[in-house]
């Protein structure tokens, strides 16, 4: 049942989406049985090819449009709600959710957005020209078009490669109707301090 909240157990290093470590699972389950927990509902993003109408799997973190050749950049036209934003040359472009804002998006210089905020983030990967991320409401439609005749891309959803994108083709990305729910014991900003970026000055 997709409506059942997930308790994430950290088996690695960062584990930002997880809530407890293996040694804490028993205590966490006891707290859940007593109702002492919160639920964080996280949006996903959906995408499709505007040329073939093929759809791709929803992503909890981000949809990435990347070059099919790691050594090549992509020439892309970025549009939001049918309005041309800019043409840009970069290694790729992603649309991240608030949940994914602390993942690849953050590494690429994008902003952190708290889960629960109805927003998506458009971020480019290593752009040749200056480009700041754009935060848009979730009723927006973002289009990434490949504008060079010999440049092929790929669609990657949450780190998994799904489909090639032919030159001069477009991919549209929007908020999915599906969500994922996580069990939470700690506030979002406390998780930032504990696991990610905010470090105490000693």
TrEMBL record:
GO biological process, any: NAD+ metabolic process
Keyword annotations of the record: ATP-binding, Cytoplasm, Kinase, NAD, NADP, Nucleotide-binding, Transferase
Claim: Isomerase is one of the keywords in the record: no
GO molecular function: ATP binding; NAD+ kinase activity
Protein name as it appears in the record: NAD kinase
Pfam families listed in its UniProt record: NAD_kinase (PF01513), NAD_kinase_C (PF20143)
Nucleotide-binding as UniProt keyword: yes
PANTHER family attached to this UniProt entry: BIFUNCTIONAL NADP PHOSPHATASE_NAD KINASE (PTHR20275:SF43), NAD KINASE (PTHR20275)
Originating organism: marine sediment metagenome
């Amino acid at each position: 049942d997709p409506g059942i909240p997930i308790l994430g157990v950290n088996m690695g290093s960062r584990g930002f989406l997880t809530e407890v470590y293996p040694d804490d699972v028993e205590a966490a389950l006891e707290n859940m049985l007593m109702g002492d927990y919160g639920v964080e509902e996280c949006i996903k993003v959906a995408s499709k090819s505007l040329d073939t109408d093929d759809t791709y799997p929803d992503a909890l973190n981000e949809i990435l449009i990347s070059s099919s050749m790691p050594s090549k950049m992509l020439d892309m036209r970025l549009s939001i709600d049918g309005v041309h934003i800019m043409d840009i040359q970069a290694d790729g472009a992603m649309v991240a959710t608030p949940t994914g804002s602390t993942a690849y998006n953050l590494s690429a210089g994008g902003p952190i957005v708290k889960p629960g905020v109805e927003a998506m983030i458009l971020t480019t990967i290593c752009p040749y020209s200056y480009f700041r991320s754009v935060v848009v409401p979730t009723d927006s439609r973002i289009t990434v078009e490949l504008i060079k005749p010999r440049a092929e891309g790929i669609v990657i959803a949450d780190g998994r490669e799904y489909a090639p994108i032919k030159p001069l083709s477009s991919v549209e990305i929007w908020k999915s109707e599906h969500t994922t729910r996580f069990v939470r014991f700690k506030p979002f900003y406390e998780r930032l301090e504990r696991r990610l970026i905010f470090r105490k000055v000693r």
